[in-house]
Amino acid sequence: MVSQITKGIKITVKTDFEGTYFKNHKIHFAFSYEVTIENQSKDSVQLYSRHWEIHDALNNLEKVDGEGVLGKKPVIKPGEYHRYTSGCLLTSPFGAMKGFYRMINFSTSKNFKVIIPTFRLSTPFALN
């Protein structure tokens, strides 16, 4: 589990290996990740977009940009949190993800970036 706080917004990520399967004659490694976005600031905020960089051990990089998370643009009041689970596929048993959310502070009407810390994706059978 990794955590990081940016401008009073705490991001915590937990990961799990979900298994392998074949797609287009290649083995893929499936991972899930649970993200908790906790508002430790004094202002209400809204998450409106995301940016991910997904790296695998074969030096492949996939960038993903989109609105909200899982089709939602959550408003998070002070002292509250939003949690969701998503996933990704890698073509290697190791990888990492990092990124950021774009949010708006309702008190100041300013947009700001919240860093999603780098987190590792690894299959348990490939660890030493």
From TrEMBL:
GO terms for biological process: error-free translesion synthesis. Residues 3-128 form the ApaG domain. InterPro entries: ApaG_domain, ApaG_sf. PROSITE patterns: APAG. Coiled coil: none annotated. Pfam families: DUF525 (PF04379). This is ApaG protein. It comes from Myroides guanonis.
